TrEMBL record, chain A:
It is a multi-pass membrane protein. The gene is nuoH. The chain crosses the membrane at residues 7-26, 79-98, 110-133, 154-176, 182-200, 229-253, 265-286, 298-321. It catalyses: a quinone + NADH + 5 H(+)(in) = a quinol + NAD(+) + 4 H(+)(out). NDH-1 is composed of 14 different subunits. Subunits NuoA, H, J, K, L, M, N constitute the membrane sector of the complex. The keyword Transmembrane helix applies. It comes from the Bacteria. Belongs to the complex I subunit 1 family. It holds the Pfam family NADHdh. This is NADH-quinone oxidoreductase subunit H. Keywords: Cell membrane, Membrane, NAD, Quinone, Translocase, Transmembrane, Transmembrane helix, Ubiquinone. The lineage of its organism: Bacteria, Bacillati, Actinomycetota, Actinomycetes, Kitasatosporales. NDH-1 shuttles electrons from NADH, via FMN and iron-sulfur (Fe-S) centers, to quinones in the respiratory chain. The immediate electron acceptor for the enzyme in this species is believed to be ubiquinone. Couples the redox reaction to proton translocation (for every two electrons transferred, four hydrogen ions are translocated across the cytoplasmic membrane), and thus conserves the redox energy in a proton gradient. This subunit may bind ubiquinone.
From TrEMBL, chain B:
It comes from Streptomyces tricolor. Belongs to the complex I subunit 6 family. InterPro entries: NADH_UbQ/plastoQ_OxRdtase_su6, Nuo/plastoQ_OxRdtase_6_NuoJ. PANTHER family: NADH-UBIQUINONE OXIDOREDUCTASE CHAIN 6 (PTHR33269). The keyword Membrane applies. This is NADH-quinone oxidoreductase subunit J. The lineage of its organism: Bacteria, Bacillati, Actinomycetota, Actinomycetes, Kitasatosporales.
Length: 322, 201, 203
């Protein structure tokens, strides 16, 4: 009975986080992007500085007609948003926010692999959408998504493997328990590679070639309307939360902080995640979109060698200190 | 999961039998059926991309089976490699073809009977080998998990390190081969172009 | 993420320094720019909540000062899209002095501008020789029916009171022509008055 209650409570908390955090990131993006461009952003919805803009957007999306193009592959088309969104919900289950037993949805033995595997599945949603829309822009978007995923999955995995090597475990709480502050400089290259590759996998600017709106409208999501479209957008922002949380856990020491290690672990995790989310937005505002060939080149000629070098470094240091 | 675990604990002293299946066993069987069905649909459907997507279901079902056998690490690696990469590569390739939405009339191979024979033969061989090897060996799922990362790593890098290394050499050879092939094609394409340029000058 | 190649390097590199800077310097500079912009006040005007501060020469709407209008019709004739409607009639004015001649005078009956046609070129204001038309910064006169955009003289007169005083000239600007002319006349007059006085003083 108690067990069931505990599980239900955990699932509920994770679900609430899943529903609110992406919205918070989205609202922050609205405001931060606006101010970085000398604008104010939304000011009306909800009264105070447009805090309810995304809720209003959600209501708007819910009211819209749900259109499935006549030539589309109906079932795949309708299934795609769920496939894109649900993996991130699953990933959130595995991210620990504090050192205690209760501060993680579910402790997994092979947490790193679980997280990366499930995030990779999320991209399938974009591919399904791209193919099933019966639209050339969608198809191009799907192609670019696939090419990008193939290019960036590898450096991301290698960077994560480097941390796993350093910690001697692939469980996320295990990595955090093994963390020391000097891992920060030791794994910094891996951290950058992981973060950049993660951005590319989420198709966030400057890696948003698959949805490049100036050339292929909105890539794989071109034909989507209403709630299904909103789900894709939610998936993107949930992806930001997940990526930032993961980078925090793997490379920035999660709940470790200068003080208050016992009670304030969750606070440190949240602060680091928030700073990274800000960085994601900041990068989006600052840099122009990378061309397709530049994207591939960046991954294969820069990120992959860098991550391999990081693994080599990790191995050497590990052998030296043990 | 909890009632299943309870049943398993109750049933633990008695030797396991086929007639009183535990919850995990029932789940294992059901997922196996789904996996088999998805695999069958994936080879018989005439919609190419649907075949790839059914393959995702089949591979995912396999991952769930690993999970039920407490081989967590293997399960996630299965998802990571097969669903996350192989199927993506497959879909990427399919998108480059003229695969239509709906049925492809030419998706039927002429040698379907030969293929069926080979498939059935392979399946029979595999099933026979596995059944013959393990017979009524039962994996104790309630004790310390037999498929944790640590256990898997230890057996992989202690007992099976030679096959592992042989496999990596094979993969390295494949990698080198791919590079050689792509470079050769490039050189061939560049060779006729170069004199033309000079002639134009 | 690749930093700009050396030959694309910004022109801003000061001469004399080596052209090749630290890799990623351009990327960092971009981040600095956006961050700096974020900390500054944004330039957005929150219009319906806060009225904009418009410069005095804003071309919002055309106001009519009908006392100055002589119904010369220049504005209506010069208007490129014929959006000014003027009706008038003649009145005779009794002679100013007894025995004088009766004068006839144009009296304005109707002066309307169709702002659905007007393209805010300001030619009417330029050509008016009697300073009867003025730009006003007033701009909130949208209507739901296009026919309501033809505004009659009473409305145009109301707008006249929103015309701001012309802004002061820049320091060091040439003085306005009419003031220059007036000053010259005044100087001449002063000189003419002073001349007869001079010989007396000399004597």
């Amino acid at each position: 009975m108690n067990d069931a209650l505990d599980v239900t409570l955990r699932l509920l908390v994770v679900f609430v986080v899943f529903l609110t955090f992406p919205l918070i990131v989205g609202q922050t993006e609205h405001k931060v992007m606006a101010h970085m461009q000398g604008r104010l952003g939304p000011m009306y919805a909800g009264g105070f500085h447009g805090w309810a803009q995304l809720i209003a957007d959600g209501v708007k999306f819910a009211q819209k007609e749900d259109v499935v193009p006549a030539g589309a592959d109906r079932r795949v088309f309708q299934l795609a948003p769920a496939v894109a969104l649900l993996p991130y919900l699953l990933v959130l289950l595995a991210i620990p926010i504090g050192p205690s037993e209760g501060a993680v949805g579910q402790v997994l033995d092979a947490g790193v692999f679980f997280v990366l595997a499930v995030m990779g599945v999320g991209v399938l949603g974009s591919l399904m959408a791209g193919w099933a829309s019966a639209n050339k822009f969608s198809l191009l978007g799907g192609l670019r998504t696939a090419a990008q995923l193939l290019a960036y999955e590898l450096p991301m995995l290698l960077a994560a493997a480097s941390v796993a090597m350093a910690a001697g475990t692939v469980s996320l709480p295990g990595i955090l328990h093994a963390f020391h502050w000097w891992w920060l400089p030791w794994q910094i290259v891996g951290a950058i590679v992981f973060f950049v590759a993660g951005l590319a996998e989420l198709q966030r600017p400057p890696f948003d070639m698959p949805v490049a709106d100036s050339e292929i409208i909105f890539g794989a999501y071109t034909e989507y309307t209403g709630l299904r479209f909103a789900l894709f957008l939610l998936a993107e922002y949930a992806g930001i939360v997940v990526l930032c949380g993961l980078t925090t856990v793997l490379f920035l020491g999660g709940w470790h902080g200068p003080w208050g290690a016992d009670g304030l672990g969750w606070f440190w995790t949240l602060v680091k995640t928030a700073v990274l989310a800000f960085l994601v937005i900041w990068l989006r505002v600052t840099y122009p979109r990378l061309r397709e060939d530049q994207l591939q080149k960046l991954s294969w000629t820069l990120l992959v060698p860098l991550s391999l070098a990081q693994i080599a470094l990790t191995g050497i240091v590990k052998v030296v200190i043990s | 999961m909890t009632p299943a675990a309870a049943t398993a604990v109750l049933a633990a002293p008695a030797p396991p039998g086929f007639l009183s299946p535990t919850g995990v066993e029932i789940a294992f069987l059901l997922v196996g059926l789904v996996t088999l069905g998805a695999a069958l649909v994936s080879v018989t459907t005439r919609q190419l991309v649907h075949a790839a997507l059914w393959l995702v279901v089949a591979l995912g079902g396999l991952a769930v089976e690993y999970l039920l056998l407490t081989a967590e690490f293997i399960a996630w690696v299965q998802v990571l490699i097969y669903v996350g990469s192989v199927v993506v590569l497959l879909l990427f390739g399919l998108m480059l073809t003229k695969a239509p939405i709906g049925r492809s009339p030419d998706a039927d191979s002429g040698n379907r009977w030969a293929a069926l024979t080979v498939a059935v033969a392979a399946a029979v061989a595999l099933v026979w080998v596995v059944v013959d090897a393990f017979r009524t060996t039962w994996i104790d799922l309630d004790g310390p998990a037999a498929g944790t990362t640590e256990v898997t790593g230890a057996s992989l890098f202690r007992h099976w390190v030679l096959p592992f290394e042989a496999l990596s050499v094979l993969l390295l050879a494949a990698l080198v081969g791919a590079i050689v092939l792509s470079r050769k094609a490039k050189a061939d394409a560049a060779a006729p172009a170069a004199p033309g340029k000079e002639g134009a000058r | 993420m690749s930093h700009p190649s050396p030959d694309h390097h910004p022109v801003t590199t000061p001469p004399g320094r080596p052209r090749r800077s630290i890799p990623g310097a351009g990327l960092a500079k971009g981040l600095a720019v956006t961050l700096r912009t974020m900390t500054r006040k944004s330039v957005t005007e929150q219009y319906p909540d806060a009225l904009p501060e418009l410069p005095p020469r804003t071309r919002g709407v055309i106001g009519l000062f009908e006392e100055n209008c002589t119904v010369c019709m220049l504005c209506a004739r010069e208007c490129p899209d014929w959006c000014i409607y003027i009706d008038s009639h003649k009145e005779t004015v009794p002679p100013a002095a007894p025995g004088g001649r009766e004068r006839s005078r144009n009296v304005l009956d109707r002066f309307a501008i169709d702002f659905s046609l007007c393209m805010y070129c300001g030619i009417c204001i330029e050509v008016c020789p009697f300073d009867a038309l003025f730009w006003s910064p007033e701009f909130e006169y949208a209507e739901t029916d296009i026919r309501d955009l033809t505004h009659e003289r009473d409305k145009l007169r109301e707008w006249m009171w929103t015309v701001p005083a012309p802004p002061a000239l820049d320091p060091g600007a040439e003085e306005p022509k009419e003031i220059a002319a007036a000053r010259k006349t005044a100087e001449k007059l002063a000189a003419a008055q002073a001349e007869p006085a001079d010989p007396q003083e000399g004597a």
